[in-house]
Design brief:
mainly alpha; three-stranded antiparallel sheet; 63% helix; 28 helices
């Protein structure tokens, strides 16, 4: 799941950077930085088409997703909707609303209708955040399930390799607890009345326990809570609950849907903590499941159960004055912990060792991310796509990126690898950084990449790179790079440097030459059909210290917009 979110964020980054450049002149009263969470979750929810916007999607996005996703609901209440209006206007004005989208007027009208409800939702989120902050203050010393004390050790871990979503989704479908939560929800049915003090009557509890095959009634309530977490059961008013209409279809066939459901229940790991008759003793053991998980992760993903039992007993005693009493009263405190984690598909126990499953590793990495702790997690080399490689390599030190590339190449035929990399670079014409990364890696393969370069000549965004490399390789009958090819490469360079900050951008302008050289370039570069042309011309006019360059940039921008 984490890699899917990161891939979506990487895909959207160039588009958002372009919007940020567009906004000051076209929507000066909006804060373009506030639109990021809405755009990311829209991209994830519509499953791949960042330009497809429908009125019906906005309600779920703004009223259900955003209260959970935004870090600062106060700022979102004030500025997210103006920023989203500006973003949709930007998509429409630049031709990026894809066919099938509702009209801009309809989308903006829907946002207007949702505004009051959105503000109410943000206010509820603000109240919840304040409650959470109060709880956090109370829990500052409650370190049993806290990952923060292990932050340095987590950061020092070797790279954690994550399995592809296809494998993780299949594992999620097989998690026994999710199946039990589904069965409970189906038993609940539609319009079941619940009580205020006891949700179910004794007869209903007995019936549900029998249906689920549970050993005793107490186990029912954790499954009940899990079913709510998974959104298999939903409240309808103050005294009624119903099964969600999609629940019967679990396990879902779509990998993203299956993983989304499993991830909704990830925090159910806390239900694995022992529950004792004495509330104070129960509290002394709270966080035990998380404490076990982080220790297994730090030991490379596997650890002897006896070692865990001894270490955690000591940790509980240090954590709470009642820790020793609670540990003794629980009998085997790790039994419910292991049972829940096994049932949720996160660990296995074999030959006395507790081992994280690939799904468990994904879950713990997600929890570590949520705690804002640095962790080096990447797709496994054998599961890494060309786009994964390009996306991750862009953020790695050169030596480490080279190692990653070498390991990836060791599993592939070089000619096929070249084709995969260039195909990945062609997926998004707006992503100059990925394109430059791909060209560099494919260029390092030498003559074996010639067939891939020849294929890339047909792709407008890659043609400049292909023509340049084919010429450098002295390929017979290769076309020489044109002036337009050179200009495209310059625009790619400017796109990347503009994303690094004003100083980097100005430096890249100076790399071209003195003011007169840039003016001469601007007189012709406006003809290049580059996806970032207009905002780059605006940026040149704004950033270059020479006023004549600024005027030339404005002239070029006018020509680009008018097509003259």
């Amino acid at each position: 799941m984490t890699d899917r979110i990161e891939a979506a964020a990487a895909e959207l980054r160039p588009l958002l950077q372009e919007f940020i450049l567009w906004a000051p002149a076209n929507a000066p009263d909006s804060d373009p930085d506030l639109v990021g969470p809405a755009v990311l979750w829209h991209r994830l929810d519509v499953k791949g088409d960042a330009g497809l916007w429908k009125r019906g999607d906005l309600r779920a996005l703004l009223l259900e997703r955003m209260p959970q996703a935004v870090e600062d609901p106060d700022a979102a209440a004030d500025g997210m909707l103006p920023a989203l209006r500006a973003y949709l206007t930007f998509l429409s004005s630049t031709g990026r609303l894809t066919p099938g989208s509702d009209s801009l007027d309809d989308l903006l009208g829907e946002i207007d209708e949702l505004e009051d409800d959105f503000v109410d939702a943000m206010e509820d989120a603000i109240a919840e955040h304040e409650w959470d902050e109060e709880e956090d203050e109370l829990d500052e010393d409650d370190g049993l399930g806290d990952f923060e004390p292990f932050a340095d050790e987590i950061a020092d871990l070797p790279t954690i390799r994550l399995r592809p979503d296809t494998e993780l989704a299949e594992a999620a479908r097989q998690a026994p607890l999710v199946g039990k939560a589904r069965d409970l929800a189906l038993w609940v049915g539609t319009g079941r009345k619940v009580g205020e003090e006891t949700l179910l009557t004794e007869d209903e509890v007995s019936e549900a326990v029998k249906v689920l095959g549970l050993p005793e009634p107490q186990a029912l309530w954790n499954i009940w809570n899990l079913a709510i977490d998974l959104e298999f059961i939903a409240p309808e008013g103050a005294d009624t609950v119903s099964v969600d209409s999609d629940t019967a279809a679990w396990p879902f066939e779509d990998d993203e849907d299956a993983l989304d459901v499993w991830m909704l229940g990830l925090h159910s790991i806390d239900y694995g903590d022992p529950e004792l008759d004495d509330d104070d003793l129960t509290l002394a053991l709270s966080g035990l499941t998380r404490a076990l998980l982080i220790r297994v992760l730090l030991n490379g993903g596997s650890r002897p159960l006896d070692e865990l039992r001894d270490e955690l007993a000591e940790a509980v005693a240090e954590y709470d004055d009642l820790g020793q009493d609670a540990w003794a009263a629980a009998g085997d405190p790790l039994e419910p912990v292991i049972a829940w984690l096994t049932g949720y598909g996160m660990v296995t126990v074999q030959d006395g060792d507790v081992t994280l499953t690939p799904l468990g590793t994904e879950g713990v990495v997600h929890l570590v991310d949520e705690a804002d702790i640095e962790v080096d997690a990447r797709p496994a080399i054998d599961a890494m796509t060309a786009l994964d490689l390009l996306s991750f390599s862009a953020d790695l030190p050169e030596e480490e990126a080279d190692t990653e590339f070498a390991d990836w190449m060791a599993l592939r035929d070089p000619a096929q690898a070249a084709s995969e990399l260039l195909a990945a670079a062609a997926e998004d014409e707006a992503d100059a950084l990925i394109r430059v990364q791909a060209a560099s890696l494919v260029g390092s393969l030498g003559e074996v990449a010639v067939p891939a370069w020849k294929e890339a000549l047909a792709e407008p965004s890659l043609r400049p790179y292909a023509a340049t490399h084919l010429a450098q390789l002295d390929v017979e009958d290769a076309l020489e790079p044109t002036q337009a090819d050179t200009h495209w490469l310059i625009l790619d360079m400017w796109t990347i440097s503009s994303g690094l900050g004003r100083a980097e951008f100005v430096s890249s302008l100076h790399d071209i030459g003195p003011a007169q050289t840039i003016i001469g370039l601007l007189d012709v570069i406006w003809k290049v059909p580059h996806p970032h042309l207009e905002e780059l011309l605006e940026a040149v006019g704004d950033a270059h210290p020479d006023k004549q360059v600024g005027k030339a940039a404005k002239r070029a921008l006018f020509k680009a917009r008018s097509g003259k």
